[in-house]
Specification:
92% helix; mainly alpha; 0% strand; 2 helices
């Protein structure tokens, strides 16, 4: 139970940081690609370490 709380906090922090970085740097198309890559990495981490 405790690991899932840390995982959700990590996911939330990763989404916020990725959004802020991409918002300042990239255009709309690149922003979409980067957010998809971040989502894919988070899904990979979830299925690899949390299951």
């Amino acid at each position: 139970m405790d690991n899932s709380i840390y995982y959700y906090l990590f996911v939330l922090a990763a989404i916020v940081v990725a959004f802020l970085i991409v918002k300042r740097v990239a255009s709309c198309l690149i922003r979409s690609v980067v957010l998809l890559v971040v989502a894919a990495i988070l899904i990979y981490v979830y299925y690899t370490y949390m299951r």
